[in-house]
Amino acid sequence: MRFPVARTPTPFRWAGYPPVASEAHTQRTVSTSSGPRGRHLASSPFKPKVELPIENFEAGDLVSHDSYGVGRVVSLESDAVTVDFRDQTVRVASPYRKMTKL
């Protein structure tokens, strides 16, 4: 006659908690970075994404922003511009997809 072997139940794991050592090998890493894309294959039925050139602004330029409206560039940084939209001053990071020069 065989007796059943008592097993300890595995603890319930909430999502977001770091894995324990026994689970570490089963975790997958998902990358969501918007870094450089792979090359476009010539045999692909899809067109490659066209990268729009980043617009250059100077202090004093009049600009239009999709969310804030019309404003004037106050200062420049290497990766952003500061724009005065009368009621607020906003730092807009590069690339300036929602902003155009007037």
Walk me through the structure.
Helix content is 0%, strand content 25%. The mean pLDDT is 78. A hairpin with a 3-residue loop joins strand 1 (62-65) and strand 2 (69-76). The protein starts with 61 loop residues before the first strand and ends with a strand. With 102 residues, it is an all-beta fold. The protein has strands spanning 62-65, 69-76, 80-84, 89-93, 99-101. The chain has a domain at 62-96. The chain has a five-stranded antiparallel β-sheet with strand order 4-3-2-1-5, with no helix packed on it. It is elongated and about 90 Å long. It is built from no helices and five strands.
Keywords:
single chain, 102 residues, mainly beta, five-stranded antiparallel beta sheet, 0% helix, elongated
